[in-house]
Amino acid sequence: MSKTIAVIRGDGIGPEIMNATLRVLDELKTxxxxxxxxxxxxxxxxxxxxxxxxxxxxxxxxxxxxxxxLTTPIxxxxxxxxxxxxxxxxxYANVRPAITIPGTKARYDGIDLITxxxxxxxxxxSEGQTLSxxxxxxxxxxxxxxxxxxxIVRYAFELARRQGRKKITVVHKANIMxxxxxxxxxxxxxxxxxxxxxxxxxxxxxxxxxxxxxxxQQFDVIVTTNLFGDIISDLCAGLVGGLGLAPGANIGTEAxxxxxxxxxxxDIAGKGVANPCALLLAACQMLGHxxxxxxxxxxxxxxxxxxxxxxxxxxxxxxxxxxxxxxxxLIDSLRGS
Length: 337
Ligand code: NAD
Known about the structure:
- The chain is α/β, with parallel strands linked by helices.
- It has 2 domains: about 1-90 and about 245-335, no CATH class; about 105-240, no CATH class.
- The protein is about 40% helix and about 20% strand.
- It has 11 helices and 12 strands.
- A 10-stranded mixed sheet has the order 2-1-3-12-11-4-5-10-8-9, with helices on both faces. The chain has a two-stranded antiparallel ribbon with strand order 6-7.
- It is globular, with a radius of gyration of 20 Å.
- The model has no long low-confidence stretch (mean pLDDT about 95).
C-alpha cells in the first residue's frame, strides 16, 4: 500500500508521543508515508500562524491526519484549534472507544464500548449566545437538525455493522428537552428500523451515567448528541484507566483526524515520561479507517502484552520506564508476534 497521511506532531508532549507512535507504526511495514505539518504553538513559532494554510491543504489533500495535542493559547484568535479543524473539515462524528486493558488502573474488567458523539451541532454552537448588559442573564441555543441527527446515528449503525457489534444505545433527554432531544430520538428510531439485526435501546442521559458506573459491560455502542457525548466519553475514559489510554477519531465528509483525547501535558513535557498509548490507539483507529484492521489488531495485541507484563511502561501506568522504553517494548512484542 502506498498512502500518505498528514502528521501534526503537536505541542508539549506531542512530539515525544508522536515519535514513539511512528516508530511502532513503521515496524508494521505497511508502506505508510508521512507529510509533517505544523499547528498550534509550534506553528506559531515557526511561521507566525496557529493553523497555517499549508497544514489545512495537507489534511485536505491526504484526507487522513494523525495529530498530537495542541496548546490553544489563552486569549488567541481561535476559541480552540480543535473546534476550528472540526468546522473546516465538517468532522461530524467523534468516535471514542473505551476498552479495558488488563494491567491498567481500570475500574472494571470486560468493558468494550464505543461512544459516537455528534460533533458539529447541539449545545456547542456559538450562535445565539447572549449575556444581558447587567451580566445577570445568559442565553444560549441548542440546534439539532434532522440531517445532523440522521448522519451521526447512521454512522453509529454502520460502525456497529462493520465491527460486528450487536447493540446500540441511543442516549437522550427527550423527556425534558422535548424539541431538541426529541427530534434526535425520533430520527434515531427511524434509522434504527433500517438495521433490524442490531439491537437498539434508548436511555435517558442521567440514567446512562449511573448505568455506566454500575454496570458498564452492558454497553456496546452509544450514540448521542454533542454535549452528552462529550461528558459520557470522558466518563468512559475514566472507567478504563484514564487519559493515557483514551483515543479519539474525528470523522468527516472531507477528512478524518485521529488523536489522543488528552492535551499537551505541559507539566511533563520534555521529560520523556509521557505515555504514548492514547495516540497509538488513535493510530489503530486510523489503520482501521485505512482498511488495515489486521495491523491495528497487531498493535492492540502488543499494547495488551506490554501492559500485562508492565514491561518498561511509563510512570502513569505504574512503571518506571520512559516514552522511548515503552515504544521499544511494543516493537519487541510486535517482532515476537
Ligand atoms: P492534559 O490532558 O494536557 O493534562 C492533564 C493531566 O494528565 C496532566 O497531569 C498530564 O501530565 C496528564 N497527562 C496527559 N496526557 C498524558 C500522557 N500521555 N501520559 C502521562 N500523563 C498524561 O490537560 P490540560 O493540562 O488541561 O491541558 C494542557 C493543554 O492541552 C491546554 O493548552 C489545552 O488547551 C490543551 N488540550 C489539547 C487537546 C487536543 O489537542 N486534543 C485536548 C485537551 C487539552
